[in-house]
């Protein structure tokens, strides 16, 4: 049920919020998040994200600034035709221009045309911005705030007021900053959102200033107006600042998924929501939605075409990863020893990382993840551990290439299926002019006792080798057509050796539902790449065999 249908009036809403410790999450990924350098969203991207946020139970989703660009206009049109199931889509804009009226300002007409119940409008809190940016008087700025909100209210809209540069403005001129909030209240705003626009405020300052605002509202007799918080991460304290404001009475938290945003980003809702809900006891989203947080984070990272942050709190692939043997042994007995929450609460998974720091507990735990029951006294267990450490000493890195480790484990146990056998390969590069260097790869493969010789071109030697292998195998394994090489990383292990240095290659592959990473090491970069690419194809075939064709299973590093 939508927010404006749930709440009949502000007084009832105030009573409900106080009793249930309810917080209202306001997502601005589609606007503020999209201002991140290198992030560009198509209309379809925005729709996909909006629907995912709606499924996650986010109550307010800021769609953008209608009239600022065609994509935002089209987004509101599309969501009018196909509304979200529970979330409110919110239009965003600034207050009217100086020395006119809101009713006459043409920039506000597209905001009304967007057809949203809720509108967020921002105004200046900092007298420096009023005089330097707007080039107007402090009195006119107050009139702009009140007039704009009154106009939207007269058109039947509900208004959230974002007090831009609030904390800097308050620290510079507290009396005037509070006057801007009074103007917003007089205009009919239901929320006053305190914005740390430059991201330079620290938590103790947020605590003191937010407390002042809550006290001021009570002194003004405005018990129905609520306080919100909007923080940026330029000082690395965006999440801490938002938590500090909530502890002083803020009930709306604005932020973005994965902390996307301009400069250093915005407060990360994927960190804020679990902290607020699991640690502080507030209600943000339903528990069944909270368990989808990790999947939603990764889904949106794929839509925006940015690699997920593996080390992000709560939702990162490494958030519940255990590498040290002592840690693994303890977690196996009782997860509370090294985990602050159960990973399943946020839809994540515990991972046992395999490396040269591993003990036997890591190997046994990892085997159980693969459905392999290895006993501690089984000689294979010790052999695997010794082989692991020897290979990592040579430069292999299995904590980043768990698919290769599973294949290694299955080889030791004699359960690794041989899908094909590579008899040899050649790669040629031709650069006869200033044109692009073309590569040609030839591979000799045996599949089902048939020897195949295939040739393919690519824009580089690894691309050509991958294409030739796929060409040779697709007639036997059509599912290979679904596999994609998603990432390719090269690391020089001993740079002092110059051109004879050993090279480690990590290849990330995907079948559209799952991702896996394989590793190769050699003094020859093509040989290292060949190892990783071949194991990537082999592991993908093994997954296809294990996964029913009509099901979609998300791997621990799911898309």
From TrEMBL:
Give the metabolic or biological pathway. Answer: Amino-acid biosynthesis; L-isoleucine biosynthesis; 2-oxobutanoate from pyruvate: step 1/3
Its transmembrane ranges are none
Under the heading SUPFAM superfamilies, the entry gives:
2-isopropylmalate synthase LeuA, allosteric (dimerisation) domain, Aldolase
| Any Pfam family hit | HMGL-like
**Reactions this protein catalyses:** pyruvate + acetyl-CoA + H2O = (3R)-citramalate + CoA + H(+)
Q: Where in this chain does the record put each Pyruvate carboxyltransferase domain?
A: 23-291
CDD domains given for it?
DRE_TIM_LeuA3
Keywords assigned: Amino-acid biosynthesis, Branched-chain amino acid biosynthesis, Cytoplasm, Isoleucine biosynthesis, Transferase
Enzymatic class: transferase
Among InterPro entries, the record links this protein to:
2-isopropylmalate_synth_dimer, AIPM/Hcit_synth_CS, Aldolase_TIM, Citramal_synthase, LeuA/HCS_post-cat, LeuA_allosteric_dom_sf, PYR_CT
Q: What is its EC number?
A: 2.3.3.21
For this protein, the record's PANTHER family field holds: (R)-CITRAMALATE SYNTHASE, ALPHA-IPM SYNTHASE/HOMOCITRATE SYNTHASE
Give the UniProt family note: Belongs to the alpha-IPM synthase/homocitrate synthase family.
UniProt protein name: Citramalate synthase
């Amino acid at each position: 049920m939508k927010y404006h249908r749930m709440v009949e009036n502000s007084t009832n809403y105030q009573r409900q919020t106080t009793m249930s410790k309810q917080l209202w999450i306001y997502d601005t990924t589609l606007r503020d998040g999209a201002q991140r350098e290198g992030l560009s969203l198509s209309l379809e991207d925005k729709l996909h994200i909006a629907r995912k946020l709606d499924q996650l139970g986010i109550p307010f989703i800021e769609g953008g600034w209608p009239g600022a660009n065609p994509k935002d206009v089209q987004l509101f049109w599309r969501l009018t035709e196909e509304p979200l199931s529970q979330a409110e889509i919110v239009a965003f804009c600034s207050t009217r221009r100086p020395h006119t009226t809101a009713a006459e300002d043409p920039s506000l007409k597209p905001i009304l045309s967007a057809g949203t119940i809720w509108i967020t409008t921002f105004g200046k809190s900092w007298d420096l911005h009023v005089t330097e940016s707007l080039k107007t008087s402090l009195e006119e700025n107050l009139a702009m705030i009140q007039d704009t909100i009154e106009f939207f209210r007269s058109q039947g809209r509900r208004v959230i007021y974002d007090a831009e540069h609030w904390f800097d403005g308050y620290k510079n001129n507290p009396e005037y900053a509070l006057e801007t909030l009074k103007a917003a209240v007089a205009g009919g705003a239901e929320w006053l959102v305190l914005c740390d626009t430059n991201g330079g405020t620290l938590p103790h300052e947020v605590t003191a200033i937010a407390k002042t605002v809550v006290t001021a509202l009570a002194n003004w007799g405005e018990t129905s107006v609520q306080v919100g918080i909007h923080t940026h991460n330029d000082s690395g304290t965006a999440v801490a600042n938002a938590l500090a404001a909530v502890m002083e009475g803020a009930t709306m938290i604005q932020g973005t998924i994965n902390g996307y945003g301009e400069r250093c980003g915005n407060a990360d809702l994927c960190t804020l929501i679990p902290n607020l809900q699991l640690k502080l006891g507030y209600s943000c989203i339903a528990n069944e939605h909270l368990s989808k947080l990790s999947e939603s984070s990764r889904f949106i990272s794929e839509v925006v075409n940015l690699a997920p942050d593996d080390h992000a709190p709560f939702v990162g692939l490494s958030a519940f990863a255990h590498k040290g043997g002592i840690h693994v042994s303890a977690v196996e007995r009782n997860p509370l020893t090294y985990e602050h929450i159960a990973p399943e609460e946020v839809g994540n998974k515990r991972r046992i990382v395999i490396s040269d720091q591993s003990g036997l507990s890591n190997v046994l735990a990892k085997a159980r993840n693969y459905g392999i029951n290895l006993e501690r006294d089984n000689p294979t267990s010790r052999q695997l551990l010794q082989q692991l450490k020897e290979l990592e000493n040579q430069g292999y890195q299995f904590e980043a290439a768990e698919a290769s480790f599973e294949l290694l484990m299955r080889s030791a146990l004699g359960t690794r299926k041989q899908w094909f056998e590579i008899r040899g390969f050649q790669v040629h590069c031709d650069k006869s002019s200033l044109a692009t260097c073309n590569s040609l790869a030839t591979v000799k493969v045996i599949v089902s006792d048939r020897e195949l010789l295939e040739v393919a071109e690519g824009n580089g030697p690894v691309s050509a080798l991958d294409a030739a292998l796929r060409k040779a195998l697709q007639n036997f394994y059509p599912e290979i057509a679904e596999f994609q090489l998603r990432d390719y990383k090269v690391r020089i292990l001993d740079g002092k050796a110059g051109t004879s240095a050993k090279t480690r290659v990590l290849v990330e592959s995907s079948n559209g539902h799952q991702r896996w990473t394989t590793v190769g090491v050699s003094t020859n970069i093509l040989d290292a790449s060949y190892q990783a690419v071949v194991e990537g194809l082999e592991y993908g075939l093994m997954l296809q065999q294990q996964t029913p064709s009509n099901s979609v299973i998300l791997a621990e590093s799911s898309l």
